[in-house]
Amino acid sequence: MSTTSSTSNNTNNYLKELNIAKLAVRRASILSKKISDEIKLNQVDGINKNDNSPVTIGDFGSQSIIINSILKNFPTDLIVGEEDSKLIKSDKSLSESIFKHIKLIESLDSKNNEFLGEIESIDHMCDSIDSGNSEGGPKGRIWALDPIDGTKGFLRGDQFAVCLALIVDGKVKLGVIGCPNLPNDLSNESLAPSSSSSLSSKDKGGIFYATENNGSFYQPLTIDFESKEYEEIDDSKAVKISLNNEKTFANAIQEVMQKFI
To answer: Where does Mg(2+) bind (predicted)?
Structure first.
């Protein structure tokens, strides 16, 4: 994968939706990255649902943040999420931990609170999670959300993604994917996904996004938890695949996909 410096020139009718989706996925990516690192250091634990499938406080926190952001801006839209709040409502310490992490990330990203809103209470958090209960359909505006795609990779501190798309009358209009641990330069074999754990925060993490008929773009995400803030990169880069690095790119993508399993 190579990129050419070019600010996205989005002229379609979904500019606000794209901007909100990018900000929300970025905020959820910061949250999930922090939690993934904590799990790797055994500071927090994963959770099993009743069917023994793995879920984490990252899933709940990410879904709450993104749904709250969508409904603040598009209150009549429907959302297909993955989680509900039954498990966390039955566990006070769990719900408090999720809420604490959300509030921390909101404070780090406070400059975007006016656009994304804030989770005001544990009840508000649960209501946001439960608002992702749409079953979808061929008509209307429907957001499809996977708060953490690749839970096993997430639990290992490896590759995972935060995924969001807007579907209007059965057609995908935009998509945003946050990849907190993905190296910024897949064409450089020294920055392969297998070595991502040794990379600095400046060398990995970013947002891929695309809108219908408008190309695909990548925006790096620099996270520095020590300084209690993160740097937002304003310039986006167009995503292109060139023949001279096709093999390296393909190998990198194959390696990433294996780490989601």
So the answer is: 82, 146, 148-149
Pairing of strands 141-149, 78-80: parallel
Give the Cα separation of 229 and 106 in Å (integer). 10
Q: Do the annotations mark residue 84 as ligand-binding?
A: no
* 91 annotated among ligand-binding-site residues: no
Does 62 score more than 90 pLDDT? yes
82 is in an annotated binding site: yes
Does the annotation place 148 within a ligand binding site? yes
Distance of CA 176 to the CA centre of its chain: 8
Quick one: pLDDT band at residue 42, thresholds 50, 70, 90?
Answer: confident
Catalytic positions: 59, 151
Distance CA 2, CA 118 (A): 36
Residue 231 in contact with residue 195, Cβ under 8 Å?
Answer: no
- 3-class DSSP assignment, residue 249: helix
Q: What does the buried/exposed string (b/e) look like for 140-163 if buried means 16 or more CB atoms within 10 Å of the residue's CB?
A: ebbbbbbbbbbbebbbebbbbbbb
Mean pLDDT of 7-35: 84
Tokens of 245: 């690095």
Angle formed at CA 237 by CA 9 and CA 165, multiple of 5 degrees: 70
pTM (2 decimals)?
0.81
Tokens of 260: 């989601």
Please name the residue that has the structure tokens 């057609």. 171
Q: pLDDT (tens digit, 9 = 90+) per residue, 132-187?
A: 999 999 999 999 999 999 988 888 888 999 999 999 999 999 999 999 999 877 66
The size of the chain, in residues, is 261
